[in-house]
Design goal:
mainly alpha; 79% helix
Length: 149
């Protein structure tokens, strides 16, 4: 029996919403991995949009940068501005020797993807981990993320 579009959406909602709420409330590495999967999937979709416009997205630097941003925000390894400068220097250096298409367009498209989908989604982790210094209130970070949804 083939389900229509509405039935499929209802089934996905019944299964997906509790899983998303669970990740938000649980926090920790499970939430980081959850946000990472969403970010990397969105970055891949963004790269397909750029490809349609003739811009060659730099997958290696783009995906590794988003992963580095998310892990850095969670573990607080270094200041995010230092990491972003390092990422952009790496991106410029990589694109210098790539010699495919327009270097300026490729760099701009990849940089926009890193900022738009990596930097901004890393703030979801920052908001979720806002109450880590007070373990009694750690659950409130999950409530904050759920409120934003």
């Amino acid at each position: 029996m083939k389900l229509n579009n509405t039935a499929v959406r209802i089934i996905v909602s019944l299964l997906g919403i509790p899983i998303i709420l669970g990740f938000c409330l649980w926090g920790g590495w499970s939430f980081v991995v959850f946000v990472g999967i969403i970010s990397l999937t969105a970055l891949y979709e963004f790269s397909l949009l750029l490809k349609g416009k003739g811009i060659l997205f730099n997958y290696v630097v783009g995906f590794l940068s988003v992963i580095a941003l998310l892990i850095n925000v969670y573990l607080k390894i270094t200041d995010t501005s230092i990491l972003l400068v390092t990422i952009f220097l790496l991106l410029f250096f990589y694109e210098l020797f790539r010699n495919k298409g327009s270097a300026i367009l490729n760099t701009a498209g990849t940089a926009l993807g890193i900022i738009y989908l990596g930097f901004f989604t890393s703030h979801l982790i920052l908001l979720r981990e806002l109450y880590t210094s007070l373990p009694i209130y750690y659950e409130r970070g999950g409530h904050l993320i759920i409120t934003l949804m």
